Write the structure tokens for this entry.
Amino acid sequence: KGTLLKQTSYCTRALLGILIGGLFQILIGLGVASLYRLSEMSPALLNSQLRRSRGTLAPPASIAVLSARKRNLGTTSAAVLSLIVQAVNAGLLTSPTGGGPGNISGTLYFGSWLGFALAFEMCLRYLELFSTSVVGINGGAGGG
């Protein structure tokens, strides 16, 4: 009765690896998207949206909108964390010595290493963005 995945550690490890590899990347993507959205909002727009959601006319306490430098630091940190998680995930799933479920060439093997390669590329892009950001005319940091 629904115990197919509980019968072996092989299936449990495969399912755990898929969940970690996929869902963690989705959560990281949502976090980075929210950082970019907050960095593009003006303080007046953010204040008006908060007042509207609270149903009050009084302005809320001072709200600092995310600066471009903090956004770049946050996205770079998320990229490094994603790289670490994907490296551990690919290592555990495809380990020939540990008997990982993806240790032979197949969908799980290529999927886990593709996730690692994409996380590595994302990490390189964000590190480049963070290290080359310049201060513009209006004082905002450059970058993506």
Remarks:
- Residues 9-40 form the longest helix (32 residues).
- The CA atoms of residues 19 and 25 lie 10 Å apart.
